[in-house]
């Protein structure tokens, strides 16, 4: 028995100290509970579970909504986003019902309710809590319906001449650092993926220093996922959101129900703070969501619009066909690709913010 254990670890290029060998053979610990110190495994990992704070987790949606519910929902989006704009721009915004015709340069905010092109002019209709107004631009603008924006413009009574559309955007800042490390994946597709490929990943993850796993949806089969977590991740903390293949439900999606206490199941989108960093988990994602501070169009009405990105993340884990690591204003955006194609789990060192894409052989 001892020889088998020693041989197994030697094949991985690791040596066992005598006390750890005895504990492994006697069954006091398993191989997922040992700490790798250079080439020698010296003692068992003795650590508490990771402490974390859930910052965004959508658990309730309205089955029926009144006109008042709709108004409250859209008002919350407007108020949250305008608060972000006011903090970032430090400008004196004018309500649309206070606009005069003295041709002064002013700043207004509102929700884009209409977009038109006419005679080489680009016209948007902006609405705030006091009324609406049309803003005319000389050229086409990158703006969509229901965007909440600020506009620098020149007042001329009922018509405003637009100079610049300003999105709330995330601030430019130094990359924040924390402690520990984490692995980021999506697209396990356990209802389709080969069993040996899935097990190979979980075995590989069990041997990593990273104690955190973030999964941005499409686990595929929750029972199989939970089985692998039980076998390989007894000392890890796993954060999971649903994807398109996990819950037949309108976006945003409420959490998947798991029995395993190591699995922290939150909504899509969801956000947690752990080891000093804020992590956004979202299945479908693009950089415009950071610029607009809005996480996609809601397909349902809630008590308030929880898709406004009112907290700036440090890391975004999302789903995509290929493994990618990109950055936008000190925010690291990662995806592992899919276990059905090119799958490269990304491990990020929270202390340095260095990211490594791993090909599992």
What features would you describe in this structure?
The chain is built from six helices and 20 strands. Helices cover 19% and strands 31% of the residues. The chain has three domains: 2-44, no CATH class; 52-63 and 174-357, Purple Acid Phosphatase, chain A, domain 2; 91-166, Nucleic acid-binding proteins (OB fold (Dihydrolipoamide Acetyltransferase, E2P)), CATH 2.40.50. With 361 residues, the protein is an alpha/beta fold. The longest helix is centred in the first third of the chain and has 23 residues, at 67-89. It starts with a helix and ends with a strand. It has helices at 2-10, 18-26, 67-89, 195-206, 222-232, 288-292; strands at residues 15-16, 34-37, 40-44, 52-57, 105-118, 121-127, 132-137, 148-156, 159-166, 181-185, 212-216, 237-241, 263-265, 270-274, 277-281, 315-317, 323-328, 331-336, 346-349, 355-357.
């Amino acid at each position: 028995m001892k020889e088998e254990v020693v041989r197994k670890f030697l094949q991985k290029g690791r040596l066992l100290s005598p006390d750890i060998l005895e504990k492994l053979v006697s069954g006091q610990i398993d191989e997922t509970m040992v700490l790798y110190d250079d080439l020698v495994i010296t003692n068992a990992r003795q650590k508490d579970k990771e402490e974390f704070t859930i910052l965004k987790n959508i658990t309730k949606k309205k089955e029926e909504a009144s006109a008042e519910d709709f108004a409250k929902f859209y008002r919350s989006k407007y108020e949250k986003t305008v608060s972000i704009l006011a903090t970032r721009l430090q400008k004196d915004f004018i309500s649309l019902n206070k606009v005069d015709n003295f041709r002064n340069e002013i700043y207004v905010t509102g929700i884009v309710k209409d977009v038109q092109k006419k005679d080489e002019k680009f016209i948007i209709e902006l609405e705030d809590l006091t009324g609406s107004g049309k803003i005319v631009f000389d050229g086409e603008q990158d703006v969509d319906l229901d965007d909440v924006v600020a506009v620098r413009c020149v007042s001329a009574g009922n018509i405003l001449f637009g100079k610049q559309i300003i999105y709330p955007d995330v601030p430019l800042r130094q990359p924040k650092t924390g402690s520990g490390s984490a692995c980021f994946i999506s697209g396990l597709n356990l209802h389709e993926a080969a069993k040996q490929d899935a097990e190979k990943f979980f075995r590989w993850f069990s041997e990593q220093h990273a104690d955190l796993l973030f999964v941005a949806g499409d686990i595929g089969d929750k029972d199989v996922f939970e089985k692998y977590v039980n076998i390989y991740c007894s000392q890890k903390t796993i954060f999971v959101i649903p994807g398109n293949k996990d819950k037949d439900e309108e976006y945003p999606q409420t959490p998947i129900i798991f029995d395993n206490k190591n699995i922290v199941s939150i909504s899509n989108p969801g956000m947690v703070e752990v080891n000093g960093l804020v992590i956004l988990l979202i299945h479908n994602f693009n950089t415009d969501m950071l610029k607009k501070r809005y996480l996609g169009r809601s397909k349902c009405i809630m008590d308030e619009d929880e898709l406004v990105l009112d907290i700036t993340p440090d890391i975004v884990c999302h789903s995509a066909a290929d493994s990618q690591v990109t950055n936008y204003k000190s925010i690291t955006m990662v995806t592992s690709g899919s276990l059905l194609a090119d799958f490269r789990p990304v491990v990020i060192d929270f202390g340095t913010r260095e990211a490594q894409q791993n090909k599992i052989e």
